[in-house]
Description:
This protein has 859 residues and is of the alpha/beta class. 49% of the residues lie in helices and 15% in strands. Residues 526-532 and 762-767 have low confidence and may be disordered.
Amino acid sequence: MQLVYSRPLLTVACLWVIGGAAALQLEHIGIPLIAALLAAALTASLWLLKIPARKPLSLILVLFTSFSYIQWYDERNHSSLGEEWADAEVNISGQIISPVTVDGDRASFTVKVREISPLSPLNSQEASDTLSPMPHLREKMQVSIRLVKPSEQVIASQWSRGDEIKLAGKLLLPSGARNFGGFDYRSYMRFQHIHWQITEKGTERIVVTDSKHWDVMTVLRWNDQFRARLAGVLDGLFPDKQAGYMKGMLVGLREDLDPEQFQQFSQLGLTHILAISGLHVAVFTGAILTVLGWLRLTRETKLLIAILLLPFYIVVTGSAPSVVRAGIMAMIALYAARANKLKDGLSLISLVGLLMIVWNPYYLVNVSFQLSFLVTIGLIVGVPRLNAFLPNRYPALSGTLSVTLVAQAASFPLSVYYFNQFSLISWLANFIVVPVVSMAVIPLGFVSLVIGSLWSSIGQWPAWVAARINELCFQLVDWLDGWRSFHLIWPSPSIGWMLAYYGLWAAIVVQANRIRQRKKEENGPMLTVEPGTSEISHRRRLYALCAVLLLLLLYGYSPDFWKREGVIQFLDVGQGDSILIRTPEHRHILIDGGGTMRFSKPGEEWKQRSRPYEVGERLVVPLLKQRGVHRLDWLIISHADTDHIGGLQAVIEQIPVDRLLFNGSLKDNEGTRKLFQTALDKNIPMHAAEAGQNIPLDRYSALYLLYPDHKKDEGVSYSAEQNEHSVVFMLDMYQARVLFTGDVEKLGEYDILHSLKESRLGPHSGIDGAALEERLRPVDVLKVAHHGSKTSTTEQWLDYWQPRHAVISAGVNNPYRHPSPVVVDRLESRGVNLFRTDLQGEVQMIIRKQGYRFRTMLQ
């Protein structure tokens, strides 16, 4: 309790965070703002009037004030438009309030909409009658324009923040999460006060004009133009691969970062270098004070100029929460130093955090804000204490090591919660790279940027030195990234686990302090050691706490270790297939990986986006990591069509794979060749499917291959038509049977049934054909072939297998109109319980010894 009352700002900030987090998690209960104001006033009155028991009462009142204020704030964040506007064609007018991003055939930006009205074409008269124009709207909307010709790229690139815009387009609700634990775009946009998207094809129905009046957007547009000019200077000073890196580090523009380079930095926990944060603010402030010192200005003048320049730096670098936090802290610290009233760091960061959350409570759910504050608090609390235990023969070296280790420990839970990965050599990468970047690359980058903006040829001198240092850093990062066995995949921990982690570290710090204090007492002039409180006793407690922390880490790495249930997860990857299986003994099998279909023609290279949406990288891999898939025991490729293997390139690059099973044929295209070449480079054993094979997975699970019947001596063939060669197999887990069919069509279904009836699968499996047939059917679940296309799932197929349940994997509003109504009718007429990813999102089948159950994401 001493800490609670000795640092009131820290106490208030912690309570505010707790109350705010509860407010955002719980349903709104309609507390008015006046209640928060009265509670705040009552808290102040308790202290002004020195009322007894004011301390515990104040804690309760601060919690209530935070909870009620943030619930009031969150309750006001809603759209003025009802859901009846969803999918309506509308006219809007308003002002562009964000930079306009043009990437390939897509232009995107945010508009503050002032007027909206329904379009009323001849075929939409009914919709226009039910929706009334809203002429006095003030609502942010995200706009996405699909450009249809190269000239429209030029048109869109001339738009900028502050311009007035009128456009016609389709109004959409942002999509929510469609997989358990998946990214919720609707919530993400809501926290930015955006509730609607508008899409349009082409620029013909868009009119953009310059704003006729001066406002804040005009200033922000100048800032956008200034940042773009600085980015252009860096493009001219640094090689292509380094220009994006330097723009991210100096100006906060990360759009041009090389994706492969970013992945390497992410694996090693170095992405904080690429995001403007306290490190960059400290270097900027130090550089300003150094230059002003050369001009022989007074201390007070130097500090004042630095304070005035920091807001400029915050705005120019993009105003991310991390740089706002660092900038405000720096300004307060500089002011306190100028007034000779420098306070302690914990109180300072508490004040800054409190101000930011009061200004925008949604900072609480911002990962940049969370990491920035937790790491800073960890450094303030932990570095001095760790330094006391490290040898001080080389203070600079031990200081750097303690900063690195404390930052790693403080950020670890959030890193694995959001990114689901941690490298055991991250500390080494940070220990080497961060000092080089902070002491050499960033200062040289600033110098080259300033000089290069005035005199390009002179600015290239410091840029050349920085580029050489960058090359060495990139080589080191590439080398360390190659140590794959040190890169761990972590499932997302629970909030309780994270609280236990920080609580244990706090207890360890307290116990270490007691050991230090005991040493001082024992070495002092008077020895006053109470029984049972010797240094040995304190050390035993410290070792016990460290052991508990280790057990907590082991549990966090494999939280489902003791569970003996199997799970089949039919992921919603849009128009494609991807199925993750976890057996009762924690074997992981991935069947296909989805894929984004792209149709490009010669002459349409201009449509290529710098980083197009790729379902494997953006959806499948994050879900695998989040669910604790440390490695895949089997990767099964049903066939080589893009909507099944397109996402597997990212999977095979980022997730260790033990064995790969495919249909024995390849498709002669770049994506397939790259995927299989990557598997060869990683020495992944590849097996062609042979009908009749029995593949045991664990004591409770096995696969029975039914199709195709590829013989080893046939070699690998090439086939443009892959559906008929899909791998078809039965999964037997406990007493449940699930039939997986890929995209097999009628001919393949006929071949399988004929082979089973002729008992031709028995010799391969070592089981009598009739016994095998009896063992396989009826099935509990049928994965419907080819996304429910009418070219599969014949009546004979259904009559033979007699499925109780069926799952169709298809995309929402897919252009092929899958599933076919004919197939749906066949299933329903036989009483089959049907699940569809286009309607229900991810479908999971949880299998136990006692039976199985289903759950779906959306219904």
